[in-house]
Amino acid sequence: MKKASSNTRNGRGPPGAAAGVPDAADTRTAGALREKEWYFRHFVNAVVDYALYMLDTDGRVAAWNTGAERIKGYAADEIIGRHFSRFYTEEDRRAGLPARALETALREGKFEAEGWRVRKDGSRFWAHVVIDPVRDDAGRLIGFAKITRDMTERRKARQQLEQTREALHQAQKMEAIGQLTGGIAHDFNNILAGIVNNLDLARRHSGGSPDVQRYVDAARAAANNGAGLIQQMLVFARKQPARIETIDVNGTIANLIPFLKRTCPENVAVASALAPDAGFASADPHQLQTALLNLVINASDAMPEGGTVTIATARAAPPASADAPAGDYVCITVADTGVGMTPDVLQHAFEPFFTTKEIGKGTGLGLSMVYGALRQMGGAAAIESEPQRGTSVRLWLPGAAAPERASGEVADVTPQAVEPGTELIFVEDDVIVSMSTTEMLREAGYRVHEAGRGEKALQLLESHPGVRVLVTDVGLPGMNGHELALESRRRRPGLKILFITGHDRSRGDERIPPGFDTEYLGKPYQPEDLFAALRRLGPG
Ligand SMILES: Nc1ncnc2c1ncn2[C@@H]1O[C@H](COP(=O)(O)OP(=O)(O)OP(=O)(O)O)[C@@H](O)[C@H]1O
Ligand SMILES: [Mg+2]
């Protein structure tokens, strides 16, 4: 388009007007032609939003407008004579796309498509392209007209709109499933409570028949499993009240890691990368621990050949797509090097009862519990995964300021009557509850021996003559808490006993003799409740 620039030198009007009178009369037609051309050039170059250019029959650039220069970055004299395939990406060139575009234009009279194109500086833009064959008056092909439009911004806006719609749809779907799940869980909880209460009655009235007791205990254990599932459903449906506290995120994870290591098979390593500035967050510590346990079990299941699951922390906010209010967050990432998920699995992973595991191996409640718990705590959860490239699940908890506590001041809950230093056995089959309660008691100065079952507690009692107190869950698998209490008391008459129970706060069990010096504590409980119950036992 060098000529175009020499033309513009002529100034503001068409050549005939601005440059004065035509040279001779016989140039009238030539003048008219030049005038037309003048208008045409200005018209073409005024179009800056479209790259308008012409190719010769071989696909070489023959004419080039300002819009083309603006969009593609080449000045006219740099590009005229060059083949238009340079505007295509390497992959498209290799696939023979430029030649095919011209063939299509010839065959069908027009080629139209969207795709990535490359600018002079190597950057890509999303183009809408039209190619028309150009023929002379005799119908001979003289080249191609090409119109290219930069659609990058529009495509981005379109994608964002789609993502927002998809996120909204997903949120509505989860909300609906939540309602449904919450309703079912609530009904089943009541049904289960009826079963459990009657099992307890049946056991008491079993007339001491060991067979009947065994059957009842098996039924009770199954009911307990059912109750566990219902808890997860309730958490997903956000029907389980969260006990939000300010927690030290790194500390909580560091405490949990030894337990997670024990949970994973030997070929799965558990690593952590805790950012020193992760700080404090608002969370229900029990729900958070259960969520992390679910994630680590998933990670471990995804690595049958072994691998590493890494728990990392950072002070970082979720992306807009996570649909969480703006603010300060602590991010916990649980990443594995396992089999990953296909896009289809990824899309459904948070839904309750979605599982790819064999019947009996997975209930599909793990991730839904994680999702519900995080939403309820005011945070968010998201999964990134690709087949064979591992999975990262990110949890965002609302950030919190460090709790105010003057240096040197200890926790405000200090047990008194059963004095710190007292040796006790703590029996609980839920490992997470066991771990956190043991931690709590140790912090308060108790010397705690942990047992997951009654039988183990009896062994501990034998091997630790200094034990003065037994704290036991009532609903234990195998020997239950009441039986354990009776047997322990038989072996060590002065032993003080504190029962913890999720079901029955009464002291009505017939096999505990009157005057039996015990206390009951209902689940769930706060540290101060536990310490208060220990105090009620009297001096140890
Ligand atoms: N870390 C992971 N790597 C690969 N796939 C995963 C991972 N975590 C979850 N999944 C996929 O998501 C599905 C749902 O997970 P979720 O934890 O909700 O249920 P589950 O593990 O199958 O059963 P449950 O946790 O109730 O025992 C899994 O069945 C699995 O297909
Ligand atoms: Mg799971």
The largest sheet, given as strand count, sense and whether it forms a barrel, is: 7 strands, mixed
The CATH architecture name of the largest domain reads 2-Layer Sandwich
Instruction: Using the coordinates shown, work out and report the CATH topology of the largest domain.
Output: Heat Shock Protein 90
Helix content: 40-55%
Bound molecules: adenosine-5'-triphosphate, magnesium ion
Strand content: 15-25%
How many domains make up the 3D coordinates? 4
Description:
- The structure is a single chain.
- The protein is of the alpha/beta class and 540 residues long.
- The chain has four domains: 2-155, 2-Layer Sandwich (Beta-Lactamase), CATH 3.30.450.20; 167-236, Helix Hairpins; 245-400, Heat Shock Protein 90; 423-536, Response regulator (Rossmann fold, 3-Layer(aba) Sandwich).
- 43% of the residues lie in helices and 21% in strands.
- The chain contains 17 helices and 17 strands.
- The strands form three sheets. Strands 6, 7, 8, 9, 10, 11 and 12 form a seven-stranded mixed sheet that branches.
- α9 crosses α13 and α10 (249-263) crosses α11.
- It is elongated, with a radius of gyration of 38 Å.
- The relative contact order is 0.06.
- Residues 1-11, 406-417 and 504-511 have low confidence and may be disordered.
- It binds adenosine-5'-triphosphate (ATP) and magnesium ion.
- Adenosine-5'-triphosphate (ATP) is lined by residues 294, 298-299, 302, 336, 338-341, 345, 349, 354-357, 362-368, 391.
- The site of adenosine-5'-triphosphate has 23 residues, from α11 and α13.
